[in-house]
Q: What sequence folds into this?
């Protein structure tokens, strides 16, 4: 009895570790989008070695200038917590950006392209680079 | 139509604000699914008769600077939505771009809603803060 309890707790601990290590669920469509962005990033900069969740977090939380004054940061609408519900400027609810809270994020290439185009222009006043997009998605996969 | 007593309107507004946050799903209020879902991604999908055809034409020609945001679409989707509003837009009306600047909107909302209500709901375009939207239209309170 005691042995089986110990076994159970070891199993639970292992399961917990696996969940902690992979907060975002893998998705073939999202992997394909990331692979495409990685190829573009590599083409733009031969020194590119991979996406970074830390750089993505900085992009997400920085207050930018250059964009439209109503939207200085991603967090203006998405809030500081990517797992939380966001809100558009007119009050419509935005589903969370973090993959752990919203597994369907970044799985539709057309939608991903549309929203990066719009929101990078609104927030940064320019389109985002492939590296920035990949960093952003990687950050959201880590949350 | 007889106007509702101000107190009753205030009560309805208070009740609406006290109600739980609206669902994140886009309400289906336009017959055109593309227009409904694209416009409804950020705000309620505005019925075409809210503005005259010419206003819709100007809005649809300037989506990359859409009231302080970038709402650009791929050309095919934009043309589809522009055609919907060109067909069903009001035949006459005020030559303005914001629904909240039309005389009809201001007549309904202008005189008895306290300023703090607008502060509380964040934006005059946050229709759903007070209005219940059904499949039949945006005006069923």
A:
């Amino acid at each position: 009895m005691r042995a089986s309890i110990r076994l159970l707790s070891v199993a639970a601990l292992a399961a917990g570790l696996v969940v902690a290590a992979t907060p975002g669920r893998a998705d073939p469509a999202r992997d394909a989008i990331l692979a495409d962005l990685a190829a573009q990033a590599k083409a733009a900069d031969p020194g590119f070695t991979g996406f970074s969740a830390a750089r993505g977090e900085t992009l997400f939380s920085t207050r930018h200038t250059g964009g439209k004054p109503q939207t200085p940061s991603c967090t203006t609408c998405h809030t500081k917590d990517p797992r939380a519900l966001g809100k558009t400027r007119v009050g419509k609810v935005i589903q969370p950006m973090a993959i752990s809270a919203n597994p369907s994020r970044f799985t539709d290439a057309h939608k991903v392209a549309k929203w990066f185009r719009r929101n990078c222009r609104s927030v940064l006043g320019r389109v985002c680079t492939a590296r920035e997009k990949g960093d952003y998605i990687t950050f959201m996969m880590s949350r | 139509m007889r106007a509702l007593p101000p107190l009753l309107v205030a009560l309805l507004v208070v009740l609406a604000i006290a109600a739980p946050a609206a669902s994140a799903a886009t309400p289906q209020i336009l017959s055109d699914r593309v227009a409904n879902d694209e416009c409804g991604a950020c705000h309620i999908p505005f019925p075409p008769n809210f503005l005259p055809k010419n206003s819709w034409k100007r809005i649809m020609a300037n989506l990359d600077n859409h009231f302080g945001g970038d709402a650009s679409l791929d050309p095919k989707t934009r043309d589809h939505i522009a055609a919907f509003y060109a067909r069903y837009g009001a035949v006459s009306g005020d030559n303005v771009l914001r629904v909240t600047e039309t005389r009809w909107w201001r007549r309904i909302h202008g005189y008895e809603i306290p300023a703090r209500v607008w502060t509380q709901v964040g934006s005059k375009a946050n229709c759903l803060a007070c209005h219940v939207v059904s499949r039949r239209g945006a005006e069923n309170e």
Helices of chain A lie at 2-21, 28-44, 53-61, 75-78, 109-124, 130-141. Confidence is low (pLDDT under 50) at residues 13-21 of chain A. The two ends of chain A are 38 Å apart (CA to CA). Chain A has six helices and two strands.
